[in-house]
Amino acid sequence: MNKPLPASFRFLNYRVSEFHFYQQHEDDDRELDLNFNPSGSYFKKDGSYILEYDFIASYQENEETKEVVRANMISLFKFSEVIEFEDIPDYFYTNSLAITFPYLRAFVSTLTLMGNVSKMLVLPTLNLVNYKDELKSNTSLIDLTEDAV
């Protein structure tokens, strides 16, 4: 029997640094367009990684985009050992988004439920594999070692 291997990183914390909710009409059941704009920073000195993404849920109405949710999510990860920037495993980019999105889903659902709006908003479960390359290309190396100063 195979045993699962531990990941080379840990999820430490997250925060939603900005959140906007624009209430839809209560009988509006339009499918939302969901968009991410992910980026990251890898800190070589201690092996930490900050994932940040802007999330927008919107719909089209008469050729105009109407936003329902806009949020900025910031998450902190730490690799079990300091690795080179180029050695960040590809699965990290996919998994880091997949790990944090359920927290944003819960945040949106809870706020719309507790906010006494006419209809609670539940974001769908998503496959975020298509954002891996975008996150990887939008990740920068922050080298705070004495040699870099």
SSE diagram, text form:
Elements: E1 9-21, E2 33-43, E3 48-61, E4 64-79, H1 90-114, H2 132-137, E5 139-142
Parallel strand pairs: 2-5
Antiparallel strand pairs: 1-4, 2-3, 3-4
* Helicity, as a percent range: 10-25%
CATH fold topology: Bacterial Protein-export protein SecB
| Class from secondary-structure proportions | alpha+beta
Provide a count of the helices: 2
**N- to C-terminal separation?**
50 Å
Shape: elongated
Task: Write the element-wise H/E pattern from the N-terminal end onward.
Answer: EEEEHHE
Q: Report the strand count.
A: 5
Q: In what range is the share of β-strand residues?
A: 35-45%
CATH architecture descriptor: Roll
Count of spatially separate domains: 1
Largest sheet: 5 strands, mixed
With strands numbered from the N-terminus, the spatial order across the biggest sheet is 1-4-3-2-5
Low-confidence stretches: none
